Amino acid sequence: MKIFKFFLIFFFFTFHAQTKELPRIDTKFYLGIYKSFDKLSSYATSLQYPSLPYSLETDDNKENLGFFLGYDVNFEDFIIGIETNFQENVGADQTVAFSVIGREATYEKMLEAKLKLGYSINDLRIFTYLGRGNLDVQWPEYQNDPDNASNYWTRGLVIDYIFFRDFFIGLNYDQTILDLIYTSTNYIEEVYKRSLRLRIGYVF
Strand (E) positions, 47-104? Predict the structure, then answer.
């Protein structure tokens, strides 16, 4: 009799576990293009030229195109994913105040990779991210100076709206603070980058 009761209880719990709905897991790739409105500002000081600090603010190439590619894992309404983006131009400053540094600074070839967390509400997807990136910085007069900002941190917020089932459009606010070191002039430059990106993409 005890054996019969044991099998009855075991059958009940096994049946209950099988009939209970498991969380829905969905994975998707997506890609797209964005229009970025970029703003960079910086302030720099040098031990070699202590009386000549300088500040920059981009005044050219402030509206740029970029591309992104990502992969999402959706647990019901929660989103975990990765995303990478590339942007050829980021900004240029043509108003450097003195000739020690040079006449123009350009920021270009930005490549970033991000880990993101978010939540979906009907056709809206809202997520935040944290990532690392690389950015080329060029002074024409100092071609041999270190001109790459490597492994800087970036963070931001994205709101996407899905339409026509597999297409989406969204807004992305991104900000980055990075340090650049110029060995030929001993300047240390802190750069603050803010970007607002209008993006459109397709989900596979």
Answer: 54-57, 63-75, 78-93
Q: Quick: pLDDT tens for 4-15.
A: 454 445 455 555
Contact 36, 67 (CB under 8 A): no
Return d(Cα 131, Cα 190) in angstroms, integer.
Answer: 19
Based on its alpha-carbon atoms, the radius of gyration of the chain, rounded to whole angstroms, reads 25
Burial label for 177, CB within 10 Å (0-12, 13-18, 19+), is middle
Domain count of the fold of the chain: 1
6 in any annotated domain:
no
Threshold 0.85, pTM exceeds: no
CA distance 161 to 89: 26
Q: Which domain holds residue 101?
A: 23-203
Q: What is the rounded CA–CA span in Å between residue 80 and residue 53?
A: 43
pLDDT digits (tens, 9 = 90+) for 53-66: 888 777 667 899 99
Other CB atoms within 10 A of residue 24 CB: 9
- Alpha-carbon gap, residue 10 to 4, rounded angstroms: 10
CATH number assigned to the domain comprising residue 198: 2.40.160.20
